[in-house]
Design the sequence.
């Protein structure tokens, strides 16, 4: 029995050394264009869903009405659309370079997800995905407004659909300023 336990300990130590060597050698995929590591997606999803199921709110504290949808659309345009897109608009250059790819939330709506799940993701972010947590920059009401707007994306009033239909460039995207003195040389 002692040899068996010793064999297990040595086996685990060798595995730990091999994994450390793999990462230290620069062999692990870390660029956004690299293929994921074996089991990376499965393990990340398993951990994410377990945490969300444990912590997500079970009830929505604000009404699902047009004023909250409109507020949510405004917040979404300013904070989320650059990665997650707008209805009938092409993905932005920024979103195309992300890994994992940010879901385009109007092409692949989250209307089947419980609102608490979307709220949790917006509030906390998702580690190693590029998805930031907005709990320090948006109020709980604002987070719920975005959540409700997304949860009801398939049945939004016309006023909300219109507010989401404009391309992002119309909303104050910084223009490239050319230094005329430098460009004339």
Sequence:
């Amino acid at each position: 029995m002692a040899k068996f336990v010793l064999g297990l300990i040595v086996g685990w130590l060798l595995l730990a050394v091999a994994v450390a060597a793999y990462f230290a050698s620069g062999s692990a995929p870390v660029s956004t264009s690299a293929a994921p590591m074996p089991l990376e997606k499965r393990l990340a999803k398993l951990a994410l869903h377990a945490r969300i199921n444990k912590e997500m709110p079970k009830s929505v504290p604000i009404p699902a009405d047009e004023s909250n949808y409109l507020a949510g659309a405004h917040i979404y345009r300013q904070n989320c659309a650059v990665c997650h897109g707008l209805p009938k608009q092409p993905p932005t250059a920024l979103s195309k370079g992300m890994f994992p790819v940010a879901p385009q939330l109007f092409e692949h709506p989250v209307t089947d997800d419980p609102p608490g799940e979307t709220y949790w993701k917006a509030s906390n972010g998702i580690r190693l995905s590029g998805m930031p947590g907005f709990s320090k920059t948006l109020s709980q009401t604002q987070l719920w407004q975005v959540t409700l707007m997304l949860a009801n994306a398939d049945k939004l009033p016309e006023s909300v659909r219109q507010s989401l239909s404009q391309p992002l460039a119309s909303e104050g995207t910084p223009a490239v300023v050319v230094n005329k003195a430098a460009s004339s040389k």
User: Anything to note?
Assistant: The mean pLDDT is 89. The chain is about 50% helix and 0% strand. The radius of gyration is 22 Å. The CA atoms of residues 85 and 159 lie 18 Å apart.
